[in-house]
């Protein structure tokens, strides 16, 4: 009988199912899909395992099993009558796999419930431990049977999921039987997959939290295994892989051997990847980089031309539209996504040797992030050039263009740079792009704030950005890899495009700032306060009127950041009065 009054129909041991006889019939049958890891992760997180409510989870499994058995039962039966349940010869319904997963989870949760009661009770019998270990053994046995059925009737991803799930149950049984080395191996393989799933779903907070919860529980057992192995003098079978990497080498490169096989290199170090299908996918992805609509030659021309405005107009805007640019990079992103899916599938198949796939996954993610930044940088260059040409799109009566789209791209660049710069080796190469992004962002926000009548903050940002943009940026070094070279060049062009906008809108921003300040001061006191225009509040010493006349020429204050032959700028001249 089931728990909490539920009628539990006894299920036939799947070891008696006609597995061998069904193999021929399953050849031409469409394979069923059932991701047991995602399913178990979902039901555990929703039904009590997060807070270690094993009784609640056990009751849910029993209830769900009853529902599934009624759905799959061909005819109605009496509630008190035993019916021998059988699986069909060919399984084409994922609910049969769900039944096995629920049976395994119910046995595991029952074992955890008995174990927690045994550990907290002071009067538990001598055979209490034997009872909960038996529950774990049953869960392992059902997990093995589920893997066998998946091998015959499910697709590859379902088989890999079942294999990893079986590794978890085997690890728990090994741990309870004090076979710590075997438990360490099985649970480490499961933890690797959970860590991978958590990283893949980091944008989905609920899913990432669920995987992190499972990972934390398994890691606690792994630490205990490691402790017992050290006490007994047993060494871990996992060995760190030596990495002879060259930081100046390409992130990924593939060499075709004489026999037609492909060899993969990651930062100059060979990776032992046996899947030729994956290597061919990577080769197609690498070759697609040469078909980007903005070629290396175009970037070189934009970098070398003296007049950046004319270069952007003829070599970029005249040949590329935003739609074609996005479509070009999207084609590469599709290939990168296919490579990533294949890598994850291979990691599931090779759960005991994941180091090469982890390095490959990191390299592919770097390529993806670099291309995303490159696309955003080029889109920002085109947007800034449109701002430079803008004549009609103004904020109300303020003669400044709408910077909303440019600000959005600048924020995207900041977020992408923050992700990539977590790697210390890459961060040292991206200092200049980060500073360029900050400068362009400051200019755009300053113009936006002035347009929104936040004159003090806006003028401070515009002046700060203009002073930084007047500084030159060195050319990229020749030893940089192709992707990093393209990225650095894009940000150099972005720096020059930002300066192009600054040259047009800086004096206009200063004039707007001064005019609004004058009007405010005249309305309040009847005369303009020159000191507030430049943020000075000290009492001035007597001086010649020529100094004040400099601030009134054509009602446009001079460029505060431009050095003069005397001291430098009106602000500096005023400051010199107290020296």
UniProtKB/TrEMBL annotation:
CDD domains: SRP68-RBD. One of its GO terms (cellular component) is nucleolus. GO terms for biological process: SRP-dependent cotranslational protein targeting to membrane. It is found in: Cytoplasm; Nucleus, Nucleolus. Its main location: cytoplasm. It comes from the Eukaryota. Keywords: Cytoplasm, Nucleus, Ribonucleoprotein, RNA-binding, Signal recognition particle. One of its GO terms (molecular function) is endoplasmic reticulum signal peptide binding. Belongs to the SRP68 family. This is Signal recognition particle subunit SRP68. It comes from Babesia gibsoni.
């Amino acid at each position: 009988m089931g728990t909490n009054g539920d009628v539990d129909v006894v299920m036939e041991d799947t070891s008696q199912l006609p597995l061998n006889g069904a193999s021929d019939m399953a050849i031409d049958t469409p394979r069923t899909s059932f991701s047991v890891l995602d399913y178990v992760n979902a039901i555990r997180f929703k039904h009590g395992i997060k807070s270690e409510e094993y009784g609640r989870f056990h009751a849910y499994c029993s209830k769900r099993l009853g529902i599934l058995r009624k759905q799959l039962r061909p005819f109605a039966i009496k509630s008190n009558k035993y019916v021998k349940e059988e699986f069909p010869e060919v399984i084409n319904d994922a609910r049969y796999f769900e039944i096995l997963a629920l049976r395994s989870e119910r046995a595991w949760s029952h074992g955890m419930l008995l174990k927690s009661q045994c550990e907290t009770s002071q009067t538990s019998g001598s055979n209490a431990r034997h009872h909960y270990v038996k529950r774990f053994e049953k869960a392992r046995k059902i997990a093995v049977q589920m893997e066998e059925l998946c091998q015959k009737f499910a697709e590859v991803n379902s088989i890999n999921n079942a294999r990893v799930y079986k590794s978890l149950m085997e690890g728990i049984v090994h741990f309870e039987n004090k076979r710590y080395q075997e438990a360490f191996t099985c649970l480490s393989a499961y933890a690797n997959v959970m860590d991978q799933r958590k990283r893949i779903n980091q944008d989905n907070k609920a899913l990432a939290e669920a995987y992190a919860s499972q990972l934390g529980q398994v890691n606690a057992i792994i630490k205990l295994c490691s402790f017992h192995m050290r006490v007994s003098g047993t060494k871990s079978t996992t060995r760190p892989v030596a990495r002879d990497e060259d930081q100046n080498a390409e992130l990924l490169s593939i060499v075709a051997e004489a026999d037609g096989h492909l060899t993969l290199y990651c930062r100059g170090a060979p990776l032992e990847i046996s899947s030729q299908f994956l290597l061919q996918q990577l080769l197609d992805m690498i070759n697609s980089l040469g078909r980007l609509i903005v070629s290396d030659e175009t970037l070189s021309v934009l970098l070398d031309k003296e007049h950046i405005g004319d270069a952007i107009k003829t070599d970029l805007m005249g040949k590329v539209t935003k739609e074609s640019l996005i479509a070009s990079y999207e084609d590469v992103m599709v290939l990168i996504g296919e490579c990533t899916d294949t890598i994850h599938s291979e990691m599931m198949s090779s759960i005991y040797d994941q180091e090469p796939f982890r390095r490959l996954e990191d390299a592919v993610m770097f390529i993806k992030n670099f291309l995303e930044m490159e696309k955003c940088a080029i889109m920002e260059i085109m947007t800034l050039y449109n701002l430079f040409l803008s004549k009609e799109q103004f904020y109300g009566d303020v003669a400044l263009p709408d910077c909303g789209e440019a600000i959005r791209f600048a924020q995207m660049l900041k977020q992408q740079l923050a992700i990539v710069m977590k790697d210390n080796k890459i961060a040292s190469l991206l200092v200049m792009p980060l500073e360029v992004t900050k400068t362009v962002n400051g200019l755009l926000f300053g113009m936006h704030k002035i347009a929104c009548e936040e004159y003090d903050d806006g003028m401070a940002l515009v002046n700060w950005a203009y002073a930084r943009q007047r500084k030159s940026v060195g050319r990229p070094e020749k030893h940089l890899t192709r992707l990093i070279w393209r990225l650095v060049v894009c940000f150099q062009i972005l720096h020059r495009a930002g300066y192009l906008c600054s040259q047009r809108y800086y004096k206009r921003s200063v004039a707007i700032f001064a005019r609004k300040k004058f009007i405010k001061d005249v309305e309040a006191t009847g005369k303009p306060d020159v000191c507030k225009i430049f943020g000075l509040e000290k009492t001035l010493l007597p001086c010649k009127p020529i100094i004040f006349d400099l601030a009134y020429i054509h009602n446009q204050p001079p460029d505060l950041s431009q050095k003069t032959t005397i001291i430098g700028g009106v602000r500096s001249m005023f400051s010199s009065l107290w020296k």
